[in-house]
């Protein structure tokens, strides 16, 4: 079945450091890929998405490129801020198969001032 | 515009009891999905309702059930609670379900503790 694997956390970085959170997926169809973010005490919110191979999603300085050849959708940001501290979830939706949105287990990010 | 509202936010139950959680989606949204979030398993899909019909179901036992009303509000019920049911239960709404844009709008969750 479909699945999402993302790097385990927590990830701790200093402010202004470069961030990469790895995400790979397994899907039998043609999935759309997403990154969601969960700030402390809140529900998840969509950060960015990509619907086909080679698409790049971007928002708030974060970027991720849909790589079909490596089945990956790594999240990157050039210079993180303390306010980026949160849990980040990679997810996929397979519109051909069953449309459920499947989430990875989440990566907790701590940014130190 | 009001976001997704879940009630209650926190509750404590004992093993064997049952619980009902409520979710009011964003106005105009017809799809409601439920997820269970635990530290060990992450986010696991429970079910999705669209226009009062269950459209998708995850791999949870029959103790977990849900329904959706004509105003799109949804409830989920867990019967015969077990310790392992302790989790944050998240509700998410979307305009036309995950078959459209795939974007879900989440509530803050209902945190259930089973003693």
What does this structure look like?
- The complex is a heterodimer of chains A (about 110) and B (about 120).
- Chain A is mainly β.
- Chain A has strands at about 5, 10-15, 20, 25, 30-40, 45-50, 55-60, 60-65, 75, 85-95, 100-105, 105-110.
- In chain A, strands 2, 5, 6, 10, 11 and 12 form a 6-stranded mixed β-sheet that branches. A 4-stranded antiparallel β-sheet of chain A has the order 3-9-8-7, with no helix packed on it. Chain A has a two-stranded antiparallel sheet with strand order 1-4.
- In chain B, strand 7 (about 65-70) and strand 8 form a beta hairpin.
- In chain B, strands 2, 4, 5, 6, 9, 10 and 11 form a 7-stranded mixed β-sheet that branches.
- Chain B is globular.
- Chain B has about 120 residues and is mainly beta.
- The model of chain B has no long low-confidence stretch (mean pLDDT about 90).
- The interface of A and B includes residues 46, 51 and 102 of A.
**For the terminal residues of chain A, how far apart are their CA atoms?**
41 Å
Looking at how many chains there are and whether they match, the oligomeric state comes to heterodimer
Run of helices and strands of chain A: EEEEEEEEEEEE
Rg from Cα of chain A? 14 Å
Taking all residues together, what is the mean pLDDT of chain B?
91
Give me the Rg of chain B, rounded: 13 Å
Q: How do the SSEs of chain B run, as a string of H and E?
A: EEEEEEEEEEE
Mean pLDDT of chain A: 92
Main pleated sheet of chain B:
7 strands, mixed
Q: Count of DSSP helices of chain A?
A: 0
Structural class of chain B: mainly beta
Beta strand count of chain A: 12
Strand content of chain A: over 45%
Strand content of chain B: over 45%
Estimate percent helicity of chain B: under 10%
Helix proportion range of chain A: under 10%
Which class of secondary structure composition applies to the elements of chain A?
mainly beta
Low-confidence stretches of chain B: none
What kind of sheet is the major sheet of chain A? 6 strands, mixed
> If helices are DSSP runs of H or I spanning 4 or more residues, what is the number of helices of chain B?
0
């Amino acid at each position: 079945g479909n699945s999402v694997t993302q790097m385990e956390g927590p990830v701790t970085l200093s402010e202004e450091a470069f961030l990469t959170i790895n995400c790979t997926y397994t899907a039998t169809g043609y999935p759309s890929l997403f990154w969601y973010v969960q700030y402390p005490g809140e529900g998840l919110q969509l950060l960015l998405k990509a619907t086909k191979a080679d698409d790049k999603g971007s928002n708030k300085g974060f970027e991720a490129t849909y790589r079909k050849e490596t089945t990956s959708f790594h999240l990157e940001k050039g210079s993180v801020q303390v306010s980026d501290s949160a849990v980040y979830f990679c997810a996929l939706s397979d519109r051909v198969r069953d449309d459920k949105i499947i989430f990875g287990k989440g990566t907790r990010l701590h940014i130190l001032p | 515009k009001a976001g997704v509202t879940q009630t209650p936010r926190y509750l404590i139950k004992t093993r064997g009891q049952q619980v009902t959680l409520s979710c009011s989606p964003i106005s105009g949204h017809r799809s409601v999905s439920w997820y269970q979030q635990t530290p060990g398993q992450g986010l696991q899909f429970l079910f999705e309702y669209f226009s009062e019909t269950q459209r998708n179901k995850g791999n949870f036992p029959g103790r977990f059930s849900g329904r959706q009303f004509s105003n799109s509000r949804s409830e989920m019920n867990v019967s015969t609670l077990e310790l392992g049911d302790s989790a944050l239960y998240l509700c998410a709404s979307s305009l036309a379900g995950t078959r459209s844009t795939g974007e879900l709008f989440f509530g803050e969750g209902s945190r259930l503790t089973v003693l």
